[in-house]
Amino acid sequence: MYAARRTGTREERPTAWALDHSSRILHPRPKSLLPKMMNADMDAVDAENQVELEEKTRLINQVLELQHTLEDLSARVDAVKEENLKLKSENQVLGQYIENLMSASSVFQTTDTKSKRK
Question: Burial code of 72-95, b = ≥16 C-beta within 10 A, e = fewer?
Answer without folding.
Answer: eeeeeeeeeeeeeeeeeeeeeeee
